[in-house]
Design goal:
This protein is α/β, with parallel strands linked by helices and about 300 residues long. The chain has helices spanning about 10-15, 15-25, 75-90, 135-140, 160-170, 180-190, 195-200, 205-210, 210-220, 220-235, 240-265, 270-280, 280-295, 300-305; strands spanning about 30-35, 50-55, 60-70, 95-100, 115-120, 120-125, 130. The chain is built from 14 helices and 7 strands. The strands form 2 sheets. Strands 1-2-3-4-7 form a 5-stranded mixed sheet, with helices on both faces. It is globular.
Length: about 300
């Protein structure tokens, strides 16, 4: 049973599975029959959703949905592995789709296949790529595509007050969708001013924290930070040093999370702001996490930094 605060990929797709599979395949004849387990023997993929589907032309097959906050350059191999594991587990052909939510830096090229050669042997895996910033907001609201309603502000042509109000109205018109409002507010904060968003809709941080995309921003780098801290403690060779090292690692993770939030909202961070963040205490960092999500500009955020 889905938790009330669950606003992850599986929850979104389950809202309208037929509309979803027809959209990602571009085939109006496809029908969804079941959302399957994406856990494999050695790997559990929380951001992946497997849908068993069928069509008159292809009979039963799998649609592999990989939703990523941002594309990373390891994705082609990940998609190749994902297809192989899913086809082996369910003994069905797979149609893999990568959905990128936010655009990567301009220097990153988004690939739509895995292609390699070793000792004369070739391996290739194609997959469809859908970049949400290239999807028309009007299409999503008009079709409609309920799983994409929370992303309307970051869709093409969706970064306006009128489109946000339309998305809010669509969510509130259906009781099964109104729990997605905090996620809509979160993505609206990338393109609209926070006071305007708060005027139009509710901003529920308790619910938002359940989102895997919010967690990805906050938790990315945690393991690395703690590992570095432990290593520093071991090098000191005493128990107190290890404890201090762990604390330093957590503090470093918070600095990284704060900078990731600022980069996601305002692109690049000036060096002087990054330097000031490095000098903050753990308590100050945690207070500024919420500030980073609510200010309208980097200049406004700078005003909250301790002198």
């Amino acid at each position: 049973m889905t938790k009330p605060a669950d606003i992850g990929s599986k929850r979104l797709i389950s809202l309208a599975p037929n509309a979803w599979v027809q959209w990602v395949t571009g085939n109006s004849q496809v029908r969804a029959s079941q959302l399957l387990d994406a856990e494999f023997q050695w790997i559990s993929r929380e951001s992946d959703v497997i849908v068993k589907a069928s069509s008159p032309e292809h009979n039963e097959f799998l649609i592999l949905n990989e939703l990523q906050l941002r594309y990373d350059q390891n994705m082609p191999q990940r998609m190749r592995n994902y297809v192989a594991l899913a086809e082996e587990k369910y003994n069905l052909s797979a149609y893999p789709v990568l959905i990128n939510i936010l655009p990567p830096p301009a220097t990153v090229t988004i690939e739509n296949c895995y292609d390699s050669e070793f000792m004369g042997l070739k391996a290739r895996q194609d997959y469809r790529v859908i970049n949400l910033w290239e999807v028309e907001a009007e299409l999503v609201l008009g079709q409609p595509l309920p799983p994409l309603f929370p992303f309307v502000p970051i869709l093409k042509g969706g970064g306006s007050e009128s489109k946000l109000r339309s998305a809010v109205q669509a969510l509130r018109a259906d009781q099964t969708l109104n729990q997605l409002e905090p996620l809509l507010a979160f993505f609206a904060s990338f393109v609209l001013e926070i006071p305007l968003i708060q005027q139009i809709m509710r901003w529920d941080m308790t619910v938002l924290r359940e989102s895997p995309w919010y967690q990805e921003i906050l938790q990315e780098g945690l393991a690395q930070g703690i590992e570095q801290g432990i290593q520093q403690g071991i090098e000191q060779g005493i128990e107190q040093g290890i404890e201090q090292g762990i604390e330093q690692g957590i503090q470093q993770e918070r600095r990284g999370s704060l900078e990731r939030i600022l980069k996601l909202r305002f692109s690049e961070i000036p060096v002087e702001i990054s330097v000031r963040i490095q000098a903050l205490t753990l308590e100050q960092l945690e207070e500024l996490m919420a500030t980073a999500l609510t200010v309208n500009s980097l200049d406004e955020f700078t005003q909250h930094l301790p002198n």
